[in-house]
Structure formats: C-alpha cells, structure tokens
Design brief:
single chain; mainly alpha; 0% strand; elongated
Amino acid sequence: MTVLRISIDEENDLKLVKEFLGELPSVKIEEETDVVITETPKAQSASERIKKILEEAKGKDLFKDIEDPSEWQREIRKEWDRDF
C-alpha cells in the first residue's frame, strides 16, 4: 500500500480530487483537516548532491582494497558487453 498525502487550499479543488479518486476502487480517502504542514527541503542540484556524497565518503577508505586502480578499471571494462 502507498499513502499519498496532499494539501489543497481551495474547497472546489478538494471536491474535484475527491470525486476523481473516489471512482478508483483501490483508493480509500481519509480526510484530515487543520494539519500542520512542514516545508519539505529544497530540491538540490545534481552538483550539490554529488558534493554531499563526496563529503560523506571522506575518510571511509572505500577503495582501500584496490591496489592498482588502472588494472581494476580494465577488469571492470572487460565485463561490459561490447558489440563493435
């Protein structure tokens, strides 16, 4: 089961959404009113996400088992399916 929580400001829009979703047999509508809404964090750009991942990976010795990076990469490439 998936739970979808939406916020609708306009009463007319709420009626339309309830009518539409009410037609679907697998949908159960549970209405909540006066719910405190917290803002979701801003979407990060790809570069911000990469920076965050790199920061979290610092000092973890993720590749300590790789003695020769070039050889390791060659072995990885051998696994690729190539048709040329």
